[in-house]
Amino acid sequence: MSEEAEEPNENQQTDELADALAKEKQTSEQYLTQLKYAQADLENLKKRKEREIEEARDYCNERIIIELLDIVDELELAIKCGRSSNSKEAIVQGVEMTLKKLKKILEKEGVHPIECLSKPFDPLRHNAVSKVERDDIDECTVIEEVRKGYIMKEKVIRPSIVKVAIKRSFKPKDVEVKEDE
Fold first, then answer.
1. Starting at the edge strand that comes first in sequence, how are the strands of the sheet with 160-166 ordered?
2. Does residue 151 form part of some domain?
3. Residuewise pLDDT in 10s, the chain (181 residues)
4. Distance CA 124, CA 161 (A)
5. Is the pTM of this model over 0.90?
6. Which end of the chain is more exposed for a tag (fewer CB within 10 A), N or C?
7. How many domains does the chain contain in total?
8. In this structure, what CATH number is given to the domain that contains residue 125?
């Protein structure tokens, strides 16, 4: 009788294990399905973000370009007025006003000129194109700005092109000339 008692117990355990296995397979399939959906969502999100980044890259300058188009209009108007009137002063005033407006736009964007005259030479902000021998100024001092440099939000976007003072390499001394007697 003990063998018969064990058989239903074994059958019952086998059935319970089979049920547990079926439940785990079902749970596993649910997890796999959820994982596939999550992967698809992630891929869609990546593609959408890439499109958004590309669109932002394509149109990030749109606002400043619109403002620069106003500058183009003003320059075209200045040229037209200059051709219709022979007044140089009107042209100069128009160009000065346009330049002032352009500088204002650049300032709004965080662009500022590098102040370099009479300052020590800084290779991170300046490109030296020549050196001038001078004794009245400290060595490696910027004495002339050939082209303005600009900083945009603490980053040099165009270094200044400058001339730098150096000490004279040869200083004439009073030389005593001894004559033959």
1. 126-133, 160-166, 141-147
2. yes
3. 455 555 668 888 898 999 999 999 999 999 999 999 999 999 999 999 999 998 888 888 888 888 888 888 888 888 787 777 777 787 888 888 889 999 999 998 899 999 999 999 999 999 999 988 888 888 889 999 999 999 999 999 999 999 999 887 765 555 454 545 4
4. 12
5. no
6. C
7. 1
8. 2.30.22.10
Position 95 in a domain: no
In a domain? residue 126? yes
Alpha helices (H) along the chain: 2-59, 62-84, 88-108
Within a domain: residue 161? Answer: yes
The tokens of 54 are what?
């590309």
C-alpha span between 122 and 151 (Å, rounded): 14
Helices 62-84 & 88-108, crossing angle to 10 degrees?
Answer: 170
CA distance 92 to 128: 31
Q: Which domain holds residue 143?
A: 111-170
Rounded CA separation 16/23 (Å): 10
